[in-house]
What does this fold into?
Amino acid sequence: ALFEAARKKISEKKALEAFLKTKGIAFLPYDTAPVFKIFGSYLKEDRIQSTPSCVIVGPQGKQTLTGRDEIVTALRGLRK
It folds into this structure.
């Protein structure tokens, strides 16, 4: 529905709410700032500077992985 709204160039809040209502989609405003602040602190704490990245916390401690191959290998190791 959001892609359709974009194609119709609906950009005003009230117009978007009305459009979503016609599609049977409830609209609930949500302040994302606190969530992004928390996520930002996680990125700093784990020193994440690139994607893809993955942090695994286990009995041996915290492990930060980067790159597809390294992440896939580690995740497969968790399944064992």
Notes: DSSP finds four helices and two strands in the chain. The mean pLDDT is 94. The beta strands are 53-58, 61-66.
